[in-house]
Amino acid sequence: MSLFDKTASLLIGQEYGRARFSLAFILFFLIVAVGSIPGARAEIGEVASGLALHSAAYATLTYLLFSGMNGGVFRRAILSLLIIAVMGAIDEGVQSFLPYRGAALGDWLVDVTSSLLAGLLLCFAYPKAAQLAFGFRRRDLPIMGEE
Q1: Positive or negative: CA dihedral 97, 115, 63, 21
Q2: CA-CA distance, 3 to 105, in Å (whole number)?
Q3: Which of 13, 37, 103, 137 is deepest in the core (most CB within 10 A)?
Q4: How confident is the model over 109-137, as pLDDT tens digits?
């Protein structure tokens, strides 16, 4: 198996789908935990803005959720968006209980918007990537859990 094949399997192959889905939740809990450390957000803010951090983090979580789910691309995108909306609300909710942090509706909107844009991109790019990597036509795109 070539390096390309191994990379494609890791990033979009169905054999690692469950691992990507689980990784999304692990990363989310790490994001919340690190964001809860006093002063950590301020230090990270010196490197990147809150907009950039939220956008990158939640777009990445969307990809991990999307690529780890069963079903068609639109179903995956919608479910990913819904999960991200809940994750973003939990993140902001936790921040509201911390005296040195604060919840912001704007941050949650950035989370959801990033997920929406990532989901739309994935709806079109994911089947093409699978076709290029594995030689499947769109209608033959394997669905995790089916043989």
Answers
A1: positive
A2: 43
A3: 13
A4: 999 999 999 999 998 888 888 777 777 55
76 contact partners, CB below 8 Å, separation of at least 6: 65, 66, 67, 69, 119, 122
Q: Could you give the CA distance from residue 95 to residue 119 in angstroms, rounded to a whole number?
A: 26
The model carries a pTM of: 0.83
Q: What is the pLDDT of residues 13-30, one digit of tens each?
A: 888 999 999 999 999 999
* Interacting residues of 143 by C-beta distance below 8 A, sequence separation 6+: 14, 70, 71, 72
Residue in this structure with the two tokens 């006093």, named with its chain if needed: 38
For residue 140, the one-letter residue type is: D
CB atoms within 10 A of CB 103: 15
Number of Cβ within 10 Å of residue 31's Cβ equals 18
**Residue bearing tokens 């990809």:** 63
Cα separation, 71 vs 78, in Å, equals 11
146 part of a folded domain: no
DSSP of 34-66, one letter per residue?
HHTSTTHHHHHHTTS-HHHHHHHHHHHHHHHHH
Residue 122 maps to a domain: yes
